[in-house]
Amino acid sequence: MLAWRTRGSRLKGDKGVDRFMRSVSGLVAALIVATACEGPPSQPQAYDVLIVNGTIYDGTSAPPRPANLGIIADRIASTDADPTAPAKLVVDATNMAVVPGFIDPHTHAEDDIFDRPGNLNVNYLAQGVTTVFFGNDGEGFVDRASRMEALVTRGVGTNVAWYSGHGTAREVVMGLEDRAPGDDELQAMRDYVEADMQAGALGLSTGLFYKPGSYAGTEEVIELAEVAARYGGVYDSHLRDESTYSIGLLGAVGEAIRIGEEAGIPVHIAHLKALGKHMWGQSGDVIGLISAARERGLDVTADQYPYRASGTSLSSALIPRWAMADSEEAMFERLANADLEGRIREEMAANLERRGGPESLLITGESEWRGRTLAEIAEAMGVDPLAAAIAVVHGGNPSVASFNMNPDDIAAIAIQPWVMTGSDGSNGHPRKYATYPKAYRDFVVDGSLMSVSDFVHRSAGRVAERFGLCDRGYLEAGRKADISIIDLDSFAPVADFQNPTALASGVQHVFVNGQHALAFGTSTDNTYGQVIDKAAIRCAN
Asked: Which of 107, 357, 363, 373 is in Cβ range 3.0-4.6 Å of 132 for a Cys bridge?
């Protein structure tokens, strides 16, 4: 039930008091004024929004409790509000969970949020998410200052925070060249990252698996991470390898740890996974490596999505990085070069095996082949899968999903106390619309891997703490009123690989900075989000 209610008034008989005060003087009048100003002691606090009869999960791992929550302006005023208090808006949360808005540390929301209706971020609101990060995987905007200004002007449905992208800095300075930077080029990249940190970036992100990040040596990344460290930033990385493409999964985790230790910066590993059948069972070694680093004092965390299928572009999945250097035109020239054909096909074949074979590689992005596997495309074209892949890349290089992860590895990673929920939301993959309800179903309801409180903590409070968002992530008086009200019985994914843009079910109401962004499961078509300036946040110790 949603209702407007106004109960009572602050003071009664004010005119009589005034007439009496005018009839007296001196000390008597002063005493009466003082008494009148105190007001009736039993009158409850008035709120802009009052959420009543809900079950509060406060963002910690503590058990839930029944409570009423009051909002004034953009802040939580009370988590023990009087349910009879006057309020402009009253939301009845009977039989629902009241949770802090989830914080997604890894998205690609920048693809959508600069124009309506994408800037409403309804796909995230419908999952209970109120804050998203972008600029992950080393990506970012060259014209970042003007883009952020444009975002503020146009408005955004959720809060947003962003990273300085190593790949972007490298491309600005060096293009897509496969070489080490000169001293002047390295300094130019340092300056780029420093400007981003001063402008409010969360830290430095890398996509060392992708071009041009894959062309960078470890020492280059350490140099740039040191810049971010000076501003209290985090090093966020898509690992150089999640399989056996180059240095191997364990080698890539070790590289991230080395960067953190030598640069003196906290490390966050994006979408931690063991990719490919030949990697199944290695989650234990990965967990051991990270746990050992944490025991040595390095602050290492990771995020995870709950799907067995990864997502990337077709070229990134199959084509060797050296063949992609310089430009798209140069890549196509190499693919057509008869002298390079044998080497390219050999490496593509190995990459296809890592992805689970042509039957496991599904086209998910915009393409005439969307919804078909590489095996099906090859049969339709009358060619082998590698030739089919090259033809599809020529036709637009769509995104793909590869079904090649083991549920046991996913579960082992999920229960680690340093892992949090993150969507890696990208077009064509249902994780963009369904990560949080699927994680809830897989890990809490069906898998019994964690409690509801633990799930809320890994999706809200743990993320806020990790990235220093000290006014979000918990239901606590004084914090920003980012709040989701969820019917846990119906909280479930709807999107799948056949219909990847279906909104999740179960989230009834979402408040962003105290404003009603989602009402009865439907967007209010308003933009109440803020651009988070990490440089301006000063958290109390």
From this structure: 107
- Give the integer Cα–Cα distance in Å for 211 and 199: 25
Is the residue at 32 inside a domain?
no
Q: In the prediction, which pLDDT does 18 show?
A: 40
Element (H, E) at 220: helix 218-230
Residue 43 has pLDDT above 90, yes or no: no
Same domain? 372 vs 238: no
Q: Is residue 24 scored above 80 in pLDDT?
A: no
The arithmetic mean of pLDDT across residues 222-244, rounded, is 97
Residue 254 lies in a domain: yes
CA distances from 224 to 188, 204, 218, 262 (A): 10, 8, 10, 11
- Where are the extended beta strands (E) located within 34-81? 47-56, 65-72, 75-78
- Average pLDDT on 12-31 reads 36
Strand 309-313's sheet: what is its strand order? 309-313, 399-403, 361-363
What is the rounded end-to-end Cα distance, in angstroms, of the chain? 40
CB 105 within 8 A of CB 65: no
As a whole-number percent, the residues of the chain with pLDDT over 90 amount to: 85
- Please report how the helices 249-263 and 283-295 are oriented relative to each other, as an axis angle in degrees rounded to 10: 10
Whether 502 is in a domain gets the answer yes
DSSP symbol at 119: G
Domain endpoint, select from 403, 423, 449: 403
Q: What is the CATH number of the domain that holds 518?
A: 3.20.20.140
Last residue of one domain, picked from the residues 403, 436, 451: 403
Tens digit of each residue's pLDDT (9 = 90 or more) over 460-477: 999 999 999 999 999 999
**Statement: residue 35 has pLDDT above 80:** no
Residues whose CB is less than 8 angstroms from the CB of residue 518 and which lie 6 or more positions away in sequence, other chains included: 122, 125, 126, 507, 508, 509, 510, 524
Report which residue type is found at 66: P
Residue pair 107/136 in contact by the 8 Å Cβ criterion: yes
Domain that holds residue 361: 312-403
Q: Given CA atoms 222, 228, 229, 234 in this order, what sign does their dihedral have?
A: negative
Do residues 370 and 434 share a domain? no
373 and 467 housed in the same domain: no
Q: What is residue 140's predicted lDDT score, i.e. its pLDDT?
A: 82
Q: Are residues 291 and 321 in the same domain?
A: no
For the segment 366-381, the average pLDDT, to the nearest whole number, is 95
Task: Note whether residue 90 is domain-resident.
Answer: no
Asked if residue 484 lies in contact with residue 458, where contact means CB atoms within 8 angstroms, the answer is: no
Nearest to 457 by CA among 416, 491, 514: 416
Residue 510 has pLDDT above 70, yes or no: yes
Helix, strand, coil percentages for the chain (3-state, nearest 5):
40, 20, 40
Question: What integer pLDDT is reported at residue 40 of this predicted model?
Answer: 53
Mean residue pLDDT of the chain comes to 91
